[in-house]
Here is the input.
Amino acid sequence: MMSAERKIVIYCSASSDIDGKFNQAAREVIRAACSLGYTIVSGGTVKGTMKEVADEVVRCGGRHIGVLPRFMADYEYPDLDEVVWTGTMDERKEKMREGTCAAIALPGGIGTLDELIGSLTVAKLGRYSGKVIAFNYDGFYEPLKALLDHYVRTGMMDSASRDMISFPETVAQVETLLR
Here is the structure.
């Protein structure tokens, strides 16, 4: 198994109906991560941005681990270096984070949001020591930033917990967080 400081988990959209600019940004993040020598852990399917991520890892000659629940076997990306099978989506989320030093949410849907907030929650509880990063490309995560700030203002979240999540806006800023 590769060392924790060399693996990152990428959360992203399974939708093919998104603006192409988000997939382009995803490919750029993957190129940056691969150039830094990271193994990519992802949902490992042939759907939406997950496929774009997988294709880019292959183009970069990187190592890619896909984590899939057994009920999604029909969607497995064919060129993964390793596949980890789980029984449920909850097991999948935990396995995806396991041994990583950063959890990066690219712009995505409700599943991506679930993975991101789950990572922030376990980091807050001291059960995940990696960085929690929401790639705020084109302002995508501005509403989430506003919500978290609202939580701090209302006392629902302390500012130290709020500071556990970063919102870089460019690939260069993501790369800086990964160095």
Remarks:
- The beta strands are 7-11, 39-42, 64-69, 82-86, 102-105, 131-134, 165-166.
- Helices lie at 20-35, 48-60, 89-97, 110-124, 142-153, 159-162, 171-178.
- The first helix runs from residue 20 to 35.
